[in-house]
Amino acid sequence: MTIPKKDAYHWLSCMTYNMQVGAGTARPRHYVSRGWRQLLPSRASHTNLRHIARLLREFDIVGLQEIDAGSWRTRQHNQVEHLAALAGFVYWHTQINRDFGRFAQHGLGLLSRITPNFIEEHTLPGNIPGRGALLAYFTQGQTTLAVAVAHLSLGARSRMAQIEALAGLVSEVDHGIILADSNCSGQALTANPALRKIGLRSNSPSLPSYPSWQPRRDLDHIICTSKLKTRPARVPDVRLSDHRPVCQMIACPAGVLKAPTSPV
Q1: pTM score, two decimals?
Q2: What is the mean pLDDT of residues 81-85?
Q3: Hey, which CATH number is domain 9-253, 3.40.718.10, 3.30.300.180, 3.40.50.980, 3.60.10.10?
Q4: Average confidence (pLDDT) over 76-88
């Protein structure tokens, strides 16, 4: 691929990561031996957050799934706010999709080194409530980039409706990026009529990210509109969750985003 001229594009390092509320499942047996960490406060989970923060430092925009916005199990710490402070992000936002009061504040997170012009929270359709989409809009002049964070359902019917809703949310902007745990393969996303209709494509169609100890399924994806230039996505060997992160460099038109980036 020909790399665009520096004055034409700004390269952004992007990541999507299901962080499993910092529980640190890195082996099959950990679902049993460490499962309590998703319910109760744990010093080990707090330490695991520091390891995640070190991972995030090289990125410009990060979409997080399975975060806690501050409850008993995190000792009232908003995990996204905590990661932003540790990794030096200037902007963070959480969307609570499942509110269990003081016991759990489960949802999505966005970290960015560029402050968006505005942000929206949307509820996604589904048979079981609790799925949402977090959208950040970056606008310069007449050009807008939308960055969405989402975690889709396990059920195929609900997931299809959610993909259609996401496609509708980004269809009105010039450029769109979706950072998602899609719970389906990149091949399924590529074949989805709603995404194909508006030119959205998965840039990680054959990169297994789950489970982290022996990846076999490509469930986590960075999805872009066709006009955005990209470099090949990658999946680092990281075992801080039961998922591995997916990372990619994306070139946005100059003027929409102006920020220094670090190479991935």
Answers
A1: 0.91
A2: 97
A3: 3.60.10.10
A4: 96
